[in-house]
Amino acid sequence: MTQKRTRITMTAAQRASAAGAELxxxxxxxxxxxxxxxxxxxxxxxxxxxxxxxxxxxxxxxLRDIVTRVVDDCRLDADEVLDLACAIERVLPKEQRLFxxxxxxxxxxxxxxxxxxxxxxxxxxxPQLKYLRALGVVPPEGMTKEQASDTLDRLLxxxxxxxxxxxxxLRFWNHLTVAERGRYGxxxxxxxxxxxxxxxxxxxxxxKEENGDCGHxxxxxxxxxxxxxxYLARVKQRLLERGRS
Length: 245
Known about the structure:
By secondary structure, the chain is mainly α. The chain has three domains: 1-104, no CATH class; 119-158, no CATH class; 160-245, no CATH class. It is built from twelve helices and no strands. The longest helix has 24 residues, at 94-117. The radius of gyration is 20 Å and the shape is flat.
């Protein structure tokens, strides 16, 4: 029987509690300008640590896991910041969520425009070309940095900036078309997909352990497409053998 999913968005009752009200004020404040700075991420992290007793609020445990992963490697890249921003938006009530999302998208548009204005004719970098190939694009010969950046912006925008980690999981299970649902859609799909078979997360963890994946941002093409069912079969076989012993 499938277990009921835990609601991440803060309810009215949760927002009425002392910890919930304080967390809401903090989240609204750090998302006000659409950009998350290292100081704001640290501020949120400190609050989550100082309010450990508030873990009865699903939003607190959810955000703590995200922040811990983001700051674990002692560096904050753009993809990690976007992951955290989207996680915060999932926690916020509808009105505040829409405001935070609008501010974030405006900031992204401004940054993209600034990047295009400063574009040059240098050739695309190897990381850009790798990322394009991982997204199914064959880069033309002589592609410039600006052209690669514009192509990536268009692709990622059409997929609502699906993260590297999400793309790795989708490649693992051969469900690349789910990327079209965007970052939120992929996250929701993963929740349901793993609830349908509780052995699936163990299969992904097994692959990561065998391939030295420590959770940092890595190119999606590192994961062979469709290898997941093989690992899932190994997980189930191991559980079966343990049950017999």
